[in-house]
Amino acid sequence: MTNMKAVRIHQYGGPEVLQYEDAPRPQPGAGEVLIRVHATSVNPIDWKIRAGYLKDWMPLGFPAVLGRDVSGVVEEVGPGITGLKPGDAVYGLINGAYAQYTVAKESDVAMKPRSLDHAHAAAIPLAALTAWQALFDKGRLAGRQTVLIHAAAGGVGSFAVQLAKSKGARVVGTASGKNQGLLRELGVDQPIDYEKTRFEEVARDVDAVFDTIGGDTQQRSWKVLKRGGVLLSVAAPPSADEAGRAGVRAEFVMTQPDAAALAQIAGLVDAGIVKPVVQATMRLADVRRAHEASQSGHVRGKLVLAVD
């Protein structure tokens, strides 16, 4: 088979530019594997790329297949592959996952959690790696520290809560009123309904703030940090001047593929310590509707796309 179904864009624009169509099936090169995709998921970066907001940083060659998260089965291996073989169920952070087949570097994928189906495994890679790299690699979060997590019911935030709790940290989390129950279920020690309470009025002397929103939320976060703390953001680079005045560190996090971290996350999932939160599973052909929902900014956990 030389063709497959994929979702491609031929220009930047709104959800209408997403085309479910025939496309050439890729072939694995050296150090790559060909994956039969069973599921992918939608992340905010997907529609930001689609709309052209990131074209100066991540320019595309058209037609382009979007999608960063993948869960599937290795179909073929290219030269130099030593750790994976056809038939292995894997998941990872890649480029071009909105398709029936995709290629990935061996270093970007890991064996998927045994306890999950592909739909739930596909909800993990980008969101969980973002939380992992922010809290642990940049934030150096440790037990008995307190972390404030903004949008704690979202895709990244829900993983951040669980990963922080796995280290023994105390978690303060913000979400809308309808998601307060989810925050408690995830293990948040101090849930804050941002619709009723300004977080800076009730959160004090935290060791770390994990900002997934930016703007006014980031600006108001400086005052809740204790001296020597850290503001971690995946939304916008925090101000070094503000950090200096507050006596804290500031880190902007750009998520990178990391098979070793994915393997550790899979272990936490199989141990029942971490679980993905999936709001809905749709078909790949319904990707426009999924992008519209993601762009609304009110997704609870993740939106998954099942691939036929």
Rg, alpha carbons: 19 Å
Instruction: Output the number of helix runs.
Output: 9
Helix content: 25-40%
The main sheet comes to: 7 strands, mixed
Query: What is the CATH topology assignment of the largest domain?
Result: Quinone Oxidoreductase, Chain A, domain 1
Using the alpha-carbon principal axes, give the shape. Answer: globular
Number of domains: 2
Under CATH, the homologous superfamily of the largest domain reads Medium-chain alcohol dehydrogenases, catalytic domain
Which whole number gives the mean pLDDT? 96
| Proportion of residues in extended strands | 25-35%
CATH class of the largest domain: Alpha Beta
C-alpha end-to-end distance: 15 Å
Segments where pLDDT lies below 50 for 5+ residues? none
The H/E string reads: EEEHEEEEEHHEHEHEEHEHEHEHE
Tell me how many strands there are: 16
From the 3D coordinates, which CATH architecture of the largest domain would you assign? Alpha-Beta Complex
Summing up helix and strand content along with how strands pair, one would put the structural category as alpha/beta
How does this model look, in words?
This protein has nine helices and 16 strands. The protein is an alpha/beta fold. The strands form three sheets. Strands 3, 5, 6, 7, 8, 15 and 16 form a seven-stranded mixed beta sheet that branches. Strand 12 (206-211), helix 6 and strand 13 form a beta-alpha-beta unit. Helix 3 (125-138) crosses helix 4. The two termini are 15 Å apart.
Q: What secondary-structure arrangement, pairings included, does this model have?
A:
Layout: E1 3-9, E2 19-24, E3 32-42, H1 44-51, E4 64-65, E5 69-77, E6 89-93, E7 101-105, E8 109-111, H2 118-121, H3 125-138, E9 146-149, H4 155-166, E10 170-175, H5 180-186, E11 190-193, E12 206-211, H6 215-221, E13 225-233, H7 240-246, E14 249-252, H8 259-270, E15 278-283, H9 287-295, E16 302-306
Parallel strand pairs: 9-10, 9-12, 10-11, 12-13, 13-14, 15-16
Antiparallel strand pairs: 1-2, 1-4, 3-5, 3-7, 3-16, 5-6, 6-8
